Amino acid sequence: TGNLLAHAGAIALRGQYHTHPIPIYQIADVMVHPQARGNLGSNNLFTQLLRPLLTNISQQHPQVLAYGFPGTRPFLLGQRAKVYAQIEIAQELVCTPAMLKTNNWLQAKLMNWEQVPFDKLWQQLQVELPISLIRDARYIDWRYRRNPFRSYQILAIKNWFKIIGWAVISINGNECSIVDILIPQQQLVVALSAITRWTQSQGLQSMRLWLAAAWRQHVSCTVQATKVVVAKMCWSLPWEISTLQQQLYYTMGDVDIF
Is the pLDDT of residue 77 over 70? Predict the structure, then answer.
């Protein structure tokens, strides 16, 4: 026996690449004890942990993606170790009803989890998310509905009586966070407008969310850079950065802190 000096964790999840199933690993936890930090190049524990982990992941699957959301300092360490490459800096959108005023035929309605047809919606909309976690009923149930550490609610986005999308939300004080969302891209803005109207009816002052660049470019809200880097794991995993910048779909829900 001895003292634990460092550890690295990866969560294996079901993902897709242009509707074809692939495993997606989220590098969720990399820790090195302060007394064990230091050393240069491949001799530091951070590098010795991550490189074998990513090599092992790449050897298990013919096609696999691994990504994570480190802070700035851990990212720079991983970049020097040649295990991290930047996709983008995560941007937070802060929206108020005034920012999203539009003629809107959509409605956001709080519902029970079992009332939302998650599998049907995923089958309809997965083509719009070229690289993404599989956001079906199985994932929603594990990640949100039965999460033992956090409490979430589900909003259905309705076009009259038809549910066309959903948003997982959490409420903290007078602020609503859209932790995850699945909606046709062409209806994203009007869906967010419907959600802001719902938040306003609940006495909430603002709404925030994360969206990848290809999605947030359509939204006229306040955009604030976070201190979080969206990073791909590049050791033994040859994905083009430009491909991920254009096609990876992520939300707050991809990060384990929300």
Answer: yes
